[in-house]
Amino acid sequence: MRTSIVPLLAGVALLLALPVLLSAGLLNAAIQMLIAALFACAYSLLSGRAGMLSFGHAAYFGAGAFATVHAMNAFAGTGLLPTPLLPLVGAGVGLLVGVGAGWFATQRAGTAFSMITLAIAELLHALAPQLKGWFGGESGISTMRMPAWGLSFGSTQEVYFLTLAWVLVCMALLYFLGATPMGRLTLGLRENPQRLKFLGYGVHGVAVSAFAISSMFSGVAGALQAINNEAANYAVFDAGVSASVVLNSYIGGVGTFLGPALGAVLMTFFGYALSDLTQSWLLYQGILFVLVMMFMPSGLAGLFGAVGRLGQRHGWAVVLPLVALSVGAAVLVGAGGVFVVEMAQRMFSQDYRALARAAATAAPIALFGRSWAPGAVATWCVPAALFAVGSALAWLARQRLRILAEGRVAPAPSPVPAGPSAAIQGQANS
Hints:
Elements: H1 2-21, H2 24-49, H3 58-75, H4 87-105, H5 110-127, H6 132-135, E1 141-142, H7 156-177, H8 181-191, H9 193-198, H10 203-229, E2 231-232, H11 239-252, H12 259-274, H13 281-295, H14 299-314, H15 316-347, H16 350-359, E3 365-367, E4 370-372, H17 377-406, H18 420-429
Antiparallel strand pairs: 1-2, 3-4
Helix pairs in contact: 2-7, 2-10, 2-11, 2-12, 3-4, 3-10, 4-5, 4-10, 7-10, 8-10, 11-12, 11-14, 14-15, 15-17
């Protein structure tokens, strides 16, 4: 228990210290990471624990966001709904919408269920611009955070601490939900719904409950987004929002509790850091998702867990070289891929093609602080060398992993127990 509590407390302490360590711009990015982490964990309750793959969870995120904006304008952040309690509105509306949508969607399973959830989200996305009274049309609805409880909520730091408090509370509730009978039934729904039905449980009711609870916490995430942005637009119902939570959850590891949060934090930072550097950042995100699904189906959390188990079984002196080889291979192959993608993106852009036609020759391309001639062999030798060396390191890592799997490396010796029993054991061995 202590080994799990200490890293958790260290992580919470780091989150509390971020406003001192980060600038206002980076702190706003940290708010987006926290919201994405809560949204991913809420989605994982349905997809990972209950085994129901939803393609339209933006519907409940957006419902919570719009409900919160209306509440902010109606109550002005005072009275029964001061600003710190506004996410309760998102939770309530997300729960109600989730019950209604879940009752219909869970009538079917598998692909049909996924298509129904996608259809519900797309229906809201199509209707929102037309229902101006509810969703404000194309421009959306704006609002303003109002002071409450002695706080102005005018600074990014205060909004960050409000978001952090709600995210920690919701994550704790999601965690303890897994230990309740409802959480066990949700897991049974994924593993064997026929057996649950045979035991006398209402499978449809359990499925609707899991759907509604997931929608409720998604509504809280949408409410936090509305409070942070002080606005809501029909774009929150976009299919890209639903797709991003699926990608974040599966990249992080939908089978673990904090895996989706890890994926959401990394991918949100990935987009924040790369969106200003390259136009191809969505391509990199898609490639990363494909690679994770092909080679690490349990996600990044599963990868870290597997490395930890290898370290405990064989000793870190044996496993660390394997980790170094794998990281080196990933970095080199990734660098080669980035070189090729960025060169291709610039070569096939309209501006470069117009310039090449005007000059009747392929002009050098500025990349990574140097100019590269697209027609020169030396230019393409760089990614070829990176791919070759990275592939060699990957082959060595695979061979070393095969040796560990075959047991040709002796496991790390277990510590000899101290005390009289150790002395007796030593005498018996001698």
